[in-house]
Amino acid sequence: MEKEIVNKVANSILEIFDLENYYPKEELAPVDVSQWLLEGYVLKENDFRALLKEYDWAQHRGKYIYIQCSTDAILPAWAFALVSVYLQPFALKVISGTKNDLLLSIYQEKLNQIDYTIYKNKPLILKGCSNKPVPQEAYVLAMQQLIPFAKSIMFGEACSAVPLFKAKK
Fold it and tell me: How far is Cα 26 from Cα 37, in angstroms, rounded to an integer?
């Protein structure tokens, strides 16, 4: 007599928290300050300001922007701040840093807006496999938000999850 195969994962009460669901749909784009520097390294204030005024900032409309300098130029902080002034009317968000820094900042905002009470006393899986480059730090942020509500939290996939947290009774 054959026993029926039961998919325990499909029948479980586990909730899946997938950070990929919060990955931005809009473009993440760099703005390289070196393009406005003399030979990519020297900031001449008057020339820098003139070049910023001439630049087509509208091309960044509706994008997430990270300001960086691709050369080893030593720049004053106000240079990045001034670039952000021009980007502000067009970009969804502007940071000075790397693409990963920008993603982390976006995740912080999005994770802070979630109503976590829906996870109250439930076993959760913080989904670990992702097709998008979710920053490692976003998993830490998510854990900090989920711990006060979840009964338990595992990391990975339902078929091979690693236990991370269990609420004390």
Answer: 29
Cα distances (angstroms) measured from residue 56 to each of 15, 39, 61: 46, 20, 10
Structure tokens at 151: 């009964």
Burial, 159: exposed, middle or buried (Cβ in 10 Å; 0-12, 13-18, 19+)?
exposed
Where along the chain do its domains lie?
Answer: 15-24+104-166, 28-91
Question: For 29-80, what is each residue's pLDDT tens digit?
Answer: 999 999 999 999 999 999 999 999 999 999 999 999 999 999 999 999 999 9
Q: Is the dihedral of CA 62, 63, 66, 69 positive or negative?
A: negative
- Count of beta carbons in the 10 Å neighbourhood of residue 48: 19
Other beta carbons within 10 Å of 153: 25
CB neighbour list of residue 104: distance below 8 Å, 6 or more residues apart: 135, 137, 138, 141
Are the C-beta atoms of residues 127 and 99 closer than 8 Å to each other?
no
Give start and end residues of each alpha helix (H) in the chain: 45-54, 77-87, 99-112, 136-146
Closest alpha carbon to 16 in 135, 168, 150 = 150
**Residue length of the chain:** 169
Q: Please tell me the distance from the alpha carbon of residue 15 to that of residue 125, in angstroms, as a whole number.
A: 6
- Report which DSSP code applies to 59: G
